[in-house]
Amino acid sequence: MNRAQPLASARVVFASSQDDRFPPANTLDGNPRTFWSSTGLYPQDLIFELDPPATPAKLVVHTAKVKALSVAACPAGALDAGGDLDPFDTLVAIDLPENNTATAIPLKLSRPVSHVRFTVSEGYSDYCAVFSVVLE
């Protein structure tokens, strides 16, 4: 993949928490004033489906109050007998400074992926925000 591809061309298929005022789809809308908010407790997950599957070189996220996060991906066509995604391979786990905003995370993928899982494992407060998620 040689050009930036916003995940807006995909969709959120899972979020571990839901607040109707700050829904997970806000991470894809391109509006810097909207965001997804966790509802407390960690870890918090967002899973994005990529259609068509892609091999991005990096993930750029804009967050607030995220202390630690990880990114995992599921290879295209990797469904188990029950139709569940299997396996998710962890690509990277990083710690962020308290004043985090936009962070570019290099991804080393050898094949196209159909799903990306973004996990906030720890926050600087009870709640965190994810403003945007973009693949490049």
From TrEMBL:
Gene Ontology, cellular component aspect: cilium; intraciliary transport particle B
On the tree of life, the source organism's domain of life is: Eukaryota
InterPro entries reported in the protein's UniProt record = Galactose-bd-like_sf, IFT25
Task: Write out the GO biological process terms.
Answer: intraciliary transport
Q: What is this protein called?
A: F5/8 type C domain-containing protein
Gene source species: Allomyces macrogynus (strain ATCC 38327)
